[in-house]
Amino acid sequence: MKGGKMTNFDDSNLILRSFDPIADSQSKVLILGTMPGAESLRKRQYYAHPRNLFWPLIYGIFDENPDADYNKKIDFLRSKKIALWDVYKSCRRKGSLDSNICDEIPNDVAGLLNAYPNIKYVFCNGETSEKHFRRHVLPEIKREIYFLRLPSTSPANASVPPEEKMRMWRYIRHTLENRVKYKSVAKTEIGEIIVLADDRVVTGVFLPGSEPETDGFALFSGNRISELAKNQIEEYFKGKIRSFDIPFEIRGTNFEKNVYNALLKVPYGCTVTYRELAEMAGNKHAARAVGQALKKNPLPLIIPCHRVIGSKGRYVGFMGIGGNPLQKMLIELEAEYSGKYSFAESAD
């Protein structure tokens, strides 16, 4: 305010300036907005518009109600190890819509991330923030950073229901609680194959016709491990490799682990029956139990359950589907590249 006159932050001729970042050495995630709206600029507070959902969401993902006092809100962010900033340092804008932004000058977001190396994950509040981050910030960062776009908390973003916003904003809590997975997608002749990994191992491979469950964890684009698996899967389909050299863990009951370990010994281009695999796993009478274990195999291709066929050479239950054409395609692919031929018949 100058000379008693209130500043009009809706004036398109006014140069708007954003706030200092909220961040410290304990911060683990960064929420990145675009530019404070007119009401926020008037009050000098992040997300001050009463209909902006930022504070209800950021408290709600931790099952708490927002504090009324702004300083307590900032303390809440710090206590949860959440940093907060905007992509633009200054701009001109009529009203509060991102689409009206012009003459923008960016904040040094890359510099902030370099200054606080504990921040590994960035959540972009809306499309404009994500586009700027992906195009202009990410190329300037020289370490591993993962990001997700969340639905904008702006009152103007009414197309996404509040419950869906809450579901997606919970990714922040999942991340802070180390419930994170990374997704890569292999392009193959049988379709897209999804690979999930955590920070240590591949946790899931999903062939066409199966989809990963994403509730309960935050899903980011591929990391080094999921990308390694993706590349090897694509090489497998080109006949360049016959086994996988990637980190994974065999999980399940003791019997399931025995089945999976036995299956890893079945050579490329070869098949075994359910009974033969049961015997290899230590119980020749457990052929049906072997079938149930293979249905639960989280790592098809890597643990090659497609190499298990019925006693008469039929494809009887790959991925829990009798006569699944994917099994025939995989067996014939291996037969082609190994110089062998598949005599198995469809169960049809």
Give keywords.
single chain; 348 residues; alpha/beta; Uracil-DNA Glycosylase, subunit E; Double Stranded RNA Binding Domain; Arc Repressor Mutant, subunit A; four-stranded parallel β-sheet; four-stranded mixed β-sheet; disordered C terminus; EC 2.1.1.63; methyltransferase; transferase
Domains, number: 3
CATH class of the largest domain: Alpha Beta
Main beta-sheet annotation = 4 strands, parallel
| Oligomeric description of these chains | single chain
Q: Give the amount of beta strand, in percent.
A: 15-25%
- What is the CATH superfamily label of the largest domain? Uracil-DNA glycosylase-like domain
Enzyme class: transferase
Family: Belongs to the MGMT family.
Protein name: methylated-DNA--[protein]-cysteine S-methyltransferase
EC number: 2.1.1.63
Describe the structure in your own words.
This protein has 3 domains: 16-176, Uracil-DNA glycosylase-like domain (Uracil-DNA Glycosylase, subunit E, 3-Layer(aba) Sandwich); 180-237, Double Stranded RNA Binding Domain, CATH 3.30.160; 254-346, Arc Repressor Mutant, subunit A. It has helices at 38-43, 54-60, 70-79, 109-115, 127-137, 162-176, 224-237, 254-263, 274-280, 287-295, 325-338; strands at 16-17, 29-33, 82-86, 88-92, 102-106, 121-125, 146-150, 180-188, 191-197, 202-206, 218-221, 272-273, 308-309, 314-315, 345-346. A 4-stranded parallel β-sheet has the order 3-2-6-7. It has 11 helices and 15 strands. The termini are far apart. The longest helix is centred in the middle third of the chain and has 15 residues, at 162-176. A hairpin with a 4-residue loop joins strand 9 (191-197) and strand 10. The chain is of the alpha/beta class and 348 residues long. It comes from Thermoclostridium stercorarium (strain ATCC 35414 / DSM 8532 / NCIMB 11754). Keywords: DNA damage, DNA repair, Methyltransferase, Transferase. Belongs to the MGMT family. Its EC number is 2.1.1.63.
